[in-house]
Structure formats: structure tokens, C-alpha cells
Amino acid sequence: MSPSAGSASTANGHSHRFNSDLNLALVGLGVEYPPFLVGPEALEVLANRYYPPSTALKKVLSINRFTGIETRAAIGDVDHPLVNQPNAPSIKELNTLFRQEGVRLSVNACKKAIGEWGGSIDHITHIVSTTCTNSANPGFDHFVVKQLGISTSVEKILLHGIGCSGGMAAIRAAAHLALGSSYRGKPARILILACEISSLLVRSELDSIHQDQQTRVGVCLFSDCASAAILSNGIGEDDGPGPVYELMGWKHQIIDDSEEDLGFDVDPLGWKVVLTPRVPVIAAAAVSPCFEDLVKSIPELHKADQLPSAADFDWALHPGGSLIITGVEQAMKLTPQHLQASYEIYMKYGNSSSATIISVLNKLRETEGKDQVVACAFGPGIALEMMILRRRKEVASPVDRSGHHVANGVSHSDGAGSHKTTVNGNNISHTNGTAKQMDDLPVESEHLGQAGVTTDNVASSGSPAHEATAKGLTGANGEENGSAGSLLVEELD
Predict the structure, then answer these.
(1) Contact 386, 294 (CB under 8 A)
(2) Could you tell me if 51 and 45 are in contact, meaning their C-beta atoms sit under 8 angstroms apart?
(3) Per residue in 440-471, is it b (16+ CB within 10 Å) or e — as a string?
(4) How far apart are CA 291 and CA 302, in angstroms?
(5) What is the pLDDT, as a whole number, of residue 260?
(6) Residues in the chain with pLDDT < 50?
(7) Of 165, 207, 210, 259, which one's alpha carbon is 20 to 30 angstroms from that of 366?
(8) 169/166 Cα distance (integer angstroms)
(9) Residue 333: CA atoms inside 13 Å, Cβ hemisphere, count?
(10) What is the pLDDT of residue 265?
């Protein structure tokens, strides 16, 4: 019998059992952040340039200083012309720039994933892509395929409307496609791609804060990134470096009566974040039952009639905001070390929506840890995506991006050094790696100028369990944070 996710009926008839012979694996990962790392001061610079002081703006800027995010990845600095016009950029201007820079980031991320896999682009059988910051037709994946030189007859799927859960949903969709190929005895090498350009929405969000006097925290969180992966069903595969992560099982669910709590609404100037203060509570409460159901559906995890606990896994949690991370940490009785990769990506790059989860998985493999990993993300709906993966025993060398510079309160690293962050008093070192490239597909990088921020999930700071910069939380500028956490919760409420 071909590898499959076999069904096992339960009382409600909706449970599934995953066989141990799925033979699905992520065999290459690639992450491409743009060159600029923008500090919290960038938002203040833009706000002060174009908007008069107001109560709502003051609250948002206060929250912005204490999100726990030190820098966010952006396609440019505060002087990018598109965010320094008299008015916010139009959706046409946003689309034109995404067509250039989103495609560029995507192509580079794909080259890295393909390079680690080591196979030929002629062997790619499907492409599953996602974005929530572009909706043009044909989709951005069409232009990525052309630039990579992949045959235009390759089957493509572009997922939309799923926001921050998009990266996980794309892996899940790819897994089902691969199982279909396995059933037919055919090889599957599926390119998975997620790309988001959120920073250009900063002026549109600031417009709403000014005009409607709304406390919109999304403008404090979001960043730009493209990430990619290759999923294989193992059929016809030559001996190679082996899997980065093996897929053991997955679960998708929609949390009842929550579609009004998290979203990304269409707007004449792009999209506007929908985010209520219920999101962190809803998300944290949903994780435990989802985890229990998923573990039960994977017999391979059952040892002596005992199910593993959440602490028996490493966690790759989409860092939607610090309240999301700490809420799950507390609900699942985890430690910050279980979520180390999520904290690091959140602090250094911010929330890049759908592209973030592959970046967290890429970061997680830098260090030794548990044999299995729980990957989890939330998106509009509210949708919860969860997956359990088995990681390769040896520590893999991650694929990193090109170096950075410093200008206008924008932090850039030279690609050769390392820096430390602190989670609950524990120093975590991370060193910039060297991008692995395909010999015939050199990775490109261009520096543009622009401001960085925005898109769709909950921000927060000052939560007692989240001591991202030290005990007694300090802000990204090193300022003591005596009240930022209470301020954020109060204003969201």
C-alpha cells in the first residue's frame, strides 16, 4: 500500500491517524530577508514627519518602543520615496514594487532551498505559494517561476486569504499533493514559497491611526521576508544529504466564532490589519486540545501507552507577537528554551507573516535539541495550523542571507560576526552564516531605501513571562520598561 495518512474513526468521525510510512520530508530550506533591519525609531521618524501629535498616535508609539522587537527586516530605510510621498502609496504602486522586490526576495529564497536540496529544477513537480500582501493576477509565483527557469507546465497553486498561517498551510497542501503522487507511484519534489512585503503599508496604517484615532498595534510588528522549502516524497531520490525535517502528521482547524478577531481587510491603499485583544487568549487556549488530538493521531509517538507532553518537543511557533509566544509557553507548560528559535526570529526580524514559520524552522536547526518539533501558526479565521516533524540528528548548516549596513537608525550586520540576545537571562548566540547557492543560479541582492513596518497579528510587550531583553524588561532602545506591558494590555482592552 502506498504511504498515506490513514483514517481512524472516533466518536465524532473527524479523527485521522497518520501511518508511520508517510515518507515525506523537507529536504531544503531557504530564507531571504531584505538588507535593512529597521529599529523602533523608524516608525517614530515617519510619524513625526507626516502626522500631528494625537492621543492614538502617542499610544501606538509608546507600544512600539516595547514590543520586544529589536529590529525588523524591511526592503529599505525611512527615506524610501514610496513612504515619503504626500499620501500613502496606492495599491497600484504597492503591486508594482511587490512585483519587483517580492519576486526578487522569492527567487533568492527558492535558490537557497533548491541549492540545499541539490536536485535539478527540472525535477520540481509542483509549486505551492502563498502571500497576503499581494493579490495581482497572474500571481507573483508566475514571475518567480519564469526567473528561476522552471518549466511553465509545472503545476502551481497560489494560496490566499490565510495570512500568518500561510507558510504552514502551504506545507500542508504540499504534503497532500505529495501523498497523491505517492499513491500513483510517482516522484514529487514540491517547491513551497511564502513572501510578504508588509513595510510599505506603514503610511496606510498611520493614516488610520490619525484619521480614526485607533490604537492599531499591527504597525509595530510586521516585516518583509521570503522563505522557501522543498518537500519530497522520496520516490526516485538519489542518495543525498537526507531530510532536514520529516513530516509525521498535521492538523488544521478553525476556531469557532473568531473570524472577526483576526484578519487583513482590503483597502483602497492596500490592506488593513484586523486585530482584537481576544487573539492571544483565543490562540493560547486552542493550542492544547489541538496538540493532544495531533499526538493521538500519530501512533509512532505512543510509548508504552503513554503520550508525550508538549515539553518533550522543541517548538517552532509563529511569533505573532510576544503575548502569543508567552501565552502558548504558559498554556503548554514550556520554557523559553523550547521556543528559543521563535523568540530569536521575533526579536531580530519581527513578524513576517506567512514567511516566518520556515525562518523559525531554519533557525531551530542551528542547535541540537529534541528529536521532534511541533510547528504551529495562527491566521485569519482564526485558523490554527499545527504539524509535528522529526528533525535530522546532526546539526544542519542553515542557509542565511547577505550582509547588512547601518544608516538612519537602521541596523545592518556585515555577515561575518555574531551577536547575542537574551531569553530569561540566558545568552543565545547566533552567527551569520554564508548563503548556500546553486552554481547556475547566483543569489541576487539589491539595496533599496524605505521605511519598515506593519501587517496582521498581535503585538505585545512587558508580559511577565517574556523577558526578551533581560529580567525587568527593557525596550529596544535600552530604556527601562516599567509600564509598557500594562499600557499595551490596557489599550487593547
Answers:
(1) yes
(2) no
(3) ebebeeeebbbbbbbbbbbbbbbbeebbbbee
(4) 14
(5) 65
(6) 1-4, 6-14, 395-493
(7) 165
(8) 5
(9) 7
(10) 65
Q: Are 224 and 197 in contact (CB under 8 A)?
A: yes
Cell numbers for 448, please give them: 533599496
Burial (CB < 10 A; 0-12, 13-18, 19+), residue 415, is middle
Evaluate whether 193 touches 186 at the Cβ level (below 8 Å). Answer: no
Predicted local confidence at residue 243, as pLDDT: 93
Residue 489 cell numbers, joined: 494590555
Query: Which cell numbers hold the place of 365?
Result: 536547526
Instruction: Give CA–CA dist 432/415, Å, rounded.
Output: 5
- Residue 423, C-alpha cell as written in the block: 531569553
Could you confirm whether 164 is annotated as catalytic? yes
Q: Which residues contact 103 (CB under 8 A, 6 or more apart)?
A: 140, 143, 144, 147
Q: What does the chain come to in residues?
A: 493
Report d(CA 489, CA 425) in Å as an integer. 24
Q: What is the pLDDT of residue 264?
A: 67
Q: Sort 164 into a burial class: Cβ within 10 Å, 0-12 / 13-18 / 19+.
A: buried
Q: What is the pLDDT of residue 466?
A: 40
Which cell numbers hold the place of 42?
A: 523608524
pLDDT for the residue 241: 74
**Phi, psi angles (nearest 5°) of residue 36:** -95, 135
The C-alpha cell that represents 191 in the structure block: 517547491
Radius of gyration of the chain (CA): 21
> In this structure, what C-alpha cell is assigned to residue 187?
516522484
Identity of the amino acid at 419: H
Residue 490, CA distances (Å) to 63, 65, 309, 460, 485 in order: 11, 16, 34, 11, 8
Chain centroid to Cα 477, Å, comes to: 24
Cα–Cα separations (whole angstroms), residue 338 to 212, 228, 310, 345: 40, 24, 9, 14
Given this model, what pLDDT does residue 263 score? Answer: 67
Catalytic residue among 164, 225, 290, 376: 164
pLDDT of residue 33: 98
